[in-house]
Specification:
14 helices; seven-stranded antiparallel sheet; Jelly Rolls; 4 domains; alpha+beta; ten-stranded mixed sheet; Glycosyltransferase; 25% helix
């Protein structure tokens, strides 16, 4: 696409202040259509004649900027006047942030030294058919804005008394326009508002707002103040054991909202950054606070909710709520690991283990297509995939399970939505990833000789460690087999020659079985079963259940084993054991955190320990969605709703509910590309009543009996 716009930037020294760019023009005849194309190196907010041009926040989003930068096009016809003034404020955003805050790398330093820039075009069509383009060029001017500081980790400072008076010429500079792409992902929006639940005075005398729910976004407040009064808000996820404000786990992220008041009543919230929080400490506030003065604005990608689960068990309902809030808190343009501390990166491992649950809870097709395009763009020449996407680590690690997101994520998105485009887009990336493993392994047909994260955060790790006891070569080789098997399926679906991989896969399986003749940990049993690598699945499943008993009937798994643990139990006849783990309330368990008051999913099973103390400071997020992958077991096994691989997008469905007497009733609904499916079961009079609504032909399995049905509503008793 040919553009008339040029990249522009401020010419005067700004320091931490965000520049505002301005263009004025007059319309001497009627404009029948006006469009504004914009993007920035940073985050922009655009106002035409004082009105925001869109509800999109944190535009243009986060991509691998050197190769792909989204632009947005807005219809601004209704905002035009005879004399017009467009102002665009640009903040550092992800582009110039020192991300990650804990990694002192040359790339991080170089990132902070980059200059923010603006690119755009105002496109006018007059009544007489004449078309005029007003591009970003030397005719624009810039000034300091009232945003005196803005940064992803540290927050924002706004001076409501400041007025831009001194305007300066801008300069153009060289930055590629070939990297510009139309908006691919969902727009980031202000989606919900959460009221203050309680204002607390802590034992230390701190004044703290409790919103009762951990959210991602920012706080809006209304205050009556004098010019110069200062407001300072600090973010936190937890109170400590004594009930005092706590945010040491944010590490280097300051997470502050600072505001200098003007005279009178005023309302404000940050614009160019976001935070993860439940609690807000009022470090300074000019009057006695009232709950109605504050609102938490929840910000995430504009995804449609598609899946819902309700049960008779209040704690299980809270767990599912935590899964939902964990997803929306971390699906802000990129599937981040956490939204609060000095990290907030698009970790491939977290995205991979949660992608199925994510795609059932919300429509994430566009979200993942955009992110996977960035994964392909960031993939190294040798086929290795970064740990995080966009690649802000540049550490060259090659961990199994994390990098396998290149294969697993597009496969799951295809299964859920039935669109082959994502497989076609990612096929070369998948092949390059398998090729990388094949070429770099120490032992042919295994993946050995590399360093991995292993079963991250598993409870069988050495004391104080985060690498679980599962053998790294075992985990890596298991994923090598699994990803290769998926690549074969993908190639056949899209009509590509995968003969080489069809021959490779059985060799990997054979070598795996020859090498790993026993399974030492829960996760090793789980992977062997879930990836069909064991020669005797019935015996392996029985051994796994014995292993669970030996471990005290409690899970010991981390990021790798946990997503599949309940699935392998149900699929091998041990659904009762799966429910034992699901409904367990003692540590370690999903409901342990619920009993501790969690409103999102924790990074560690013992993020808060039984005595109220914290697991650690350095790596202890309380909004880390990976263990929320248990949600897909609730859909697929408890409710029994499963897609058919040969009919993706739920064009045909298998519905095989698995009730448990400890839950009186359970209902799941899922909006698919082919309509809504509903599965409901309830214990009544010693029997189980099943209500099934299917929008397409389905196989309904009740008590082992299979029923082939057409679309419709059905009731069964079992």
């Amino acid at each position: 696409m040919m553009y008339q716009g040029k990249w522009i930037r401020a010419t005067h020294e700004l320091g931490d202040v965000c520049p505002v760019f301005q263009k004025k023009w007059s319309a001497d005849q009627k404009v029948v259509k006006a469009e504004l194309l914009l993007t920035a190196l940073g985050i922009y907010e655009a106002k035409l004649n004082g009105e925001r041009v869109s509800a999109y926040v944190l535009a243009p989003g986060w991509t691998t900027y050197e190769k792909r930068l989204q632009y947005q096009v807005y219809d601004v016809t209704e905002l035009l006047q005879k004399d017009n003034e467009l102002e665009v404020t640009v903040a550092p955003g992800w582009f110039r942030s020192p991300m990650p805050g804990w990694e002192d790398a040359p790339q991080r330093i170089a990132r902070t030294e980059q200059t923010s820039g603006l690119f755009g075009e105002i496109r006018l069509i007059y009544e007489n058919g004449e078309q005029v383009i007003l591009p970003t060029d030397e005719t624009w001017v810039s000034a300091e804005s009232a945003f005196r500081f803005s940064e992803i980790y540290d927050g924002e400072t706004y001076d409501a008394t400041f007025v831009s008076k001194d305007w300066y010429a801008v300069e153009t500079f060289d930055w590629s326009t070939e990297i510009l792409i139309p908006q691919e992902g969902e727009e980031i929006r202000e989606k919900d508002r959460v009221a203050v639940k309680e204002i607390i005075t802590t034992p230390k005398g701190e004044v703290v707002l409790d919103f009762g729910q951990e959210v991602t976004g920012y706080v809006e407040f209304t205050v009556n103040a004098k010019a110069g009064d200062e407001i300072k808000l600090l973010c936190g996820e937890m109170l400590d054991a004594e009930g005092n404000f706590y945010n040491a786990n944010y590490r280097a992220a300051k997470s502050e909202m600072n505001y200098i008041c003007c005279d009178g009543e005023q309302t404000w919230h940050p614009v160019h950054t976001f935070f993860g929080f439940r609690y807000i400490k009022l470090e300074s506030f000019p009057e006695a606070p009232k709950p109605e003065q504050f609102t938490a604005i929840v910000v995430y990608s504009d995804m449609k909710r598609t899946g819902r689960i309700r049960t008779s068990d209040a704690k299980l309902n809270q767990l599912f709520s935590n899964i939902i809030w964990g997803q929306i808190g971390n699906f802000l343009d990129v599937p981040t690991d956490c939204p609060q501390r000095d990290e907030r990166l698009g970790w491939t491992g977290d995205a991979q283990v949660f992608v199925k649950a994510a795609s059932y809870n919300y429509d994430v097709e566009k979200f993942f297509m955009k992110w996977l395009n960035d994964l392909s763009a960031d993939q190294f020449e040798n086929g290795a995939v970064p740990d995080v996407v966009p690649d802000y680590l540049n550490n060259g690690n090659t961990s199994a399970a994390w990098r396998d997101a290149a294969v697993i994520c597009p496969w799951q998105i295809y299964l859920t939505y039935g669109n082959k485009e994502i497989l076609e887009n990612q096929f070369e990336s998948m092949k390059r990833w398998i090729g990388y493993i094949t070429e770099t392994t120490k032992d042919a047909y295994l993946w050995t000789g590399a360093r991995h994260y292993g079963d991250w955060c598993a409870l069988d790790a050495k004391v104080g460690g985060v690498h679980g006891a599962s053998r790294e070569d075992f985990v890596a080789s298991a994923y090598y087999a699994y990803s290769t098997s998926l690549l074969v399926k993908v190639g056949k679906i899209i009509g590509e020659d995968v003969t080489y991989y069809e021959e490779l896969y059985p060799k990997i399986v054979a070598k795996f079985r020859e090498t790993f003749t026993s399974y030492e940990t829960q996760t090793e049993h789980i992977l062997a079963l879930h990836f069909n690598l064991t020669a005797d699945s019935a015996q392996t499943a029985a051994n796994f259940v014995q292993k669970l008993k030996a471990d005290g009937n409690k899970l010991q798994t981390g990021f790798v084993g946990t997503p599949y643990i309940l699935h392998v139990l149900s699929q091998h006849g041990y659904t009762d054991v799966a429910y034992d783990l699901l409904l367990r309330e003692a540590y370690p368990s999903w409901l342990f955190s619920v009993n501790q008051g969690a409103t999102t999913i924790w990074e560690h099973w013992d993020g808060v320990m039984e005595d109220g103390s914290f697991w650690a400071v350095e790596m202890n997020s309380f909004n880390h969605y990976a263990y929320g992958a248990v949600g897909d077991w609730l859909y697929e096994e408890a409710a029994g709703i499963k897609p058919v691989e040969t009919a993706p997008g739920f064009a045909k469905i298998v519905i095989e509910p698995k009730p448990d007497k400890r839950i009186e009733w359970l209902e799941a609904t899922l909006d698919t590309r082919n309509g809504q499916v509903r599965s409901y079961w309830k214990f009544e009079g010693g029997k189980v009543k099943y209500e099934i609504d299917t929008p397409v032909a389905a196989t309904i399995v009740i008590g082992g009996a299979s029923h082939e049905v057409l679309a419709g509503n059905y009731i069964f008793w079992g």
